[in-house]
Amino acid sequence: MSSPHDTPLRIVLVDDHTLFRKGLAELLEREGAIHVAAITGQPAEVSAMLKNHAPDVLLLDLNIGGTDGIGVMQALRGVGFDLPVLILTVSEAEEDLARALRSGANGYLLKSMEPDEVVDAIVRAARGETVVAPGMTAKLVRMLDARNTPSLLDSLTQREQEILTHLARGESNKAIARELDISYDTVKLHVRHVLAKLNLSSRVEAAVFAVENRFMRSGGEKR
Fold first, then answer.
1. Which CATH architecture has domain 9-133?
2. To 5 degrees, how large is the angle CA 115–CA 119–CA 122?
3. Which fold has domain 147-212?
4. Start-end of CATH 1.10.10.10 domains in the chain
């Protein structure tokens, strides 16, 4: 697994289980694409670590010694930290997945994942993608099925349908901007509109929604 960067991606790892975080840090370093800039089990130390190490991605445990990792993420967002955050957990509960994505997490990873899968998720998150552990995909689909219907697609403009097509391919905002020859900020605006109209909270939900509703990737129309 190689990083698209010239140098390894820098991450900060936050987990309250000492053996797990040290073991995971060592495994990620071995993969070559990742440099673990700092690790901690204390939520109070995270802000300073982000300032001191300027990581590309934050890997954050869902439950940190009785503290809610999602709350930690939201507090960091509130004081201006805008880096990708991947929630790392043993929880396969659908409600935890939904809460993480709706709260702005860039991904939801399980501690049972293989190290190379975690590396791939980190690399994709750094590119601006939203990633979910393979074992959680079916639960994400059920969550979307309970909230959405194909008729919502009719509310999208032609340009928004094009954006959804690219989201279904897992493309980042930068890639979409290049392909459609529009600005990065314009893509961000269209993505927000797509998510709002489809009652979704993340890019990965939009991608799953498009696939599940058999939205054509080439023409922006339903099959």
1. 3-Layer(aba) Sandwich (3.40)
2. 140
3. Arc Repressor Mutant, subunit A (1.10.10)
4. 147-212
Give per-residue pLDDT as tens, 64-73.
878 899 999 9
The residue among 138, 144, 195 whose CA lies nearest residue 167 is 195
Query: pLDDT by residue (tens digit) across 126-170?
Result: 988 888 898 887 777 666 665 545 567 778 888 998 999 898 888
Contacts of 170 (CB under 8 A, 6+ apart): 124, 129, 207
| CB 168, CB 207: distance < 8 Å | yes
- Which residues in the chain are classed under CATH 3.40.50.2300? 9-133
